[in-house]
Amino acid sequence: MIVLLLVNGLVPLFFVGTLEARAVLIALAFGALLMEGLTWWQGFTRLLGLGHVLWLGLVPWLALRLPEQPAGAFKTWLAVVIACNTVSLILDVRDVALYLGGETRPGSTA
Questions:
Q1: Sign of CA dihedral 7, 83, 52, 55
Q2: Mean pLDDT, rounded, of the chain
Q3: What's the domain count of the chain?
Q4: Does residue 106 sit within a domain?
């Protein structure tokens, strides 16, 4: 989680003049608000995976923009964001599916 916060919340501040960095920061802010609401509503459940729903569009969009970027720190950051957020999305989809299947609490079977 710390890595996701650094990659999505801190590093984009160095590139805030770019559309990509602003999109990542907006997605992070939206996700934080959504997760706060979900936690208030349901508590700490697997449903929190919905907090990254904007990443379903963000990650492919960033991936399409990656090849046109010149080599350097910005391109490296984009690649790291894409990789980290993709792994997180895989886990999020799994968590939400488990929640919908009745496994509501992380680490539980009921």
A1: positive
A2: 94
A3: 1
A4: no
Answer yes or no: pTM beyond 0.85. Answer: yes
Tracing tokens 């929190």 back to the chain, one arrives at: 48
54 in a domain, yes or no? yes
Q: Which amino acid is at 57?
A: G
CA distance 17 to 78: 14
Is 51:29 a contact under the CB 8 Å cutoff? no
Instruction: Kindly indicate the confidence band of residue 105, based on its pLDDT and cuts at 50, 70 and 90.
Output: confident
What region does 72 belong to: left with phi over 0, alpha with psi -120 to 50, or beta? left
Tell me the per-residue pLDDT of 68-86, one tens digit each, with 9 for 90 and over. 999 999 999 999 999 999 9
